[in-house]
Amino acid sequence: MVSSCLLGCNCRYDGKNCRNKDVRALAKGNVLIGICPEQTGGLSTPRNPAEIQGEKVVSSAGKNVTKEYTKGAKAALSLAKLNKAKYAVLKAKSPSCGKGVIYDGTFTGGKTEGNGITAQLFIDNGIEVFTEDEVDSLKEKLKADMKG
Predict the structure, then answer these.
(1) Domain of 49?
(2) Partner of 41 for a Cys bridge, out of 68, 99, 127, 134, CB 3.0 to 4.6 A?
């Protein structure tokens, strides 16, 4: 499973992408399934940026978008389970896909420890999550899987 923005899809909140050549290179020898939980959850592109504030996901305009983020995360998990996905490469710091560090909810660029909604759901369901900054670690896992 891979965040669609990392594959080059213009699905980010700002209508742009985060195309990543190292992530795209994983397609050699692996099946990559692109997901954008925000779009799947019903949010438009472009859209106001959102950040996690406590138990909610809130847009910069003050709209509670937790329902859409949760719906998209559940749909992404269903797709992952249907395809027996073991790994995911998700967009770092995102309120949906971030792993380990996410934006802190103040819309100032500050960061805090935590996981995005989709990343946490994947982790809770046994799917190992990597960010685009951890592709080398995933490559090592994939090599070990091939040997084992």
Answers:
(1) 2-147
(2) 68
- How far, CA to CA in Å, does 26 sit from each of 36, 89, 131? 18, 10, 13
Asked if residue 8 lies in contact with residue 24, where contact means CB atoms within 8 angstroms, the answer is: yes
- Each residue's pLDDT, cut to its tens digit, for the chain (148 residues) gives 999 999 999 999 999 999 999 999 999 999 999 999 999 999 999 999 999 999 999 999 999 999 999 999 999 999 999 999 999 999 999 999 999 999 999 999 999 999 999 999 999 999 999 999 999 999 999 999 888 7
Q: What whole-number distance in Å separates Cα of residue 129 and Cα of residue 9? A: 20
Q: How far is 102 from 47, CA to CA, in rounded Å? A: 18
- Which strand (E) or helix (H) includes residue 90? strand 87-90
* Whole-number Å distance between alpha carbons of 51 and 56: 8
Closest by Cα among 64, 94, 87 to 143: 87
Would strands 34-35 and 2-3 be described as parallel, antiparallel, or unpaired? parallel
Give the helix ranges, DSSP H, for 44-108: 66-82
Q: How many domains does the chain have?
A: 1
DSSP β-ladder status, 56-59 and 2-3: unpaired
